[in-house]
């Protein structure tokens, strides 16, 4: 699982950062081994966190599954 700093540095309406801790909590609480949609889950969570705030950086997420 790879991501750019735009994920963890996304701001919400209160100018709070998304943070690495929030991303880690999301991934630890999510069974990524059983679902191929982890990218969508992370992007959706960041979008919900940002709310109506304007995106200030690129947001890139990549998940690789070894078969």
Q: Oligomeric state of the chains? A: single chain
Spatial separation of the terminal alpha carbons: 15 Å
Sheet with most strands = 2 strands, antiparallel
Strand content: 5-15%
Structural class: mainly alpha
Total beta strand runs: 2
Describe the SSE topology:
Elements: E1 2-3, H1 5-8, H2 20-28, H3 38-50, E2 61-62
Antiparallel strand pairs: 1-2
Search tags:
single chain; 67 residues; mainly alpha; two-stranded antiparallel ribbon
Notes on the structure:
The protein is mainly alpha-helical and 67 residues long. The protein contains three helices and two strands, in the order E-H-H-H-E. The radius of gyration is 12 Å and the shape is elongated. It has a two-stranded antiparallel ribbon with strand order 1-2.
């Amino acid at each position: 699982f790879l991501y750019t700093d735009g994920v963890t540095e996304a701001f919400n309406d209160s100018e709070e950062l998304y943070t690495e801790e929030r991303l880690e909590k999301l991934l630890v609480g999510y069974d990524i081994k059983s679902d191929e949609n982890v990218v969508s889950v992370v992007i959706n969570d960041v979008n919900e966190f940002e709310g109506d705030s304007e995106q200030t950086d690129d947001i890139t997420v990549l998940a690789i599954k070894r078969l």
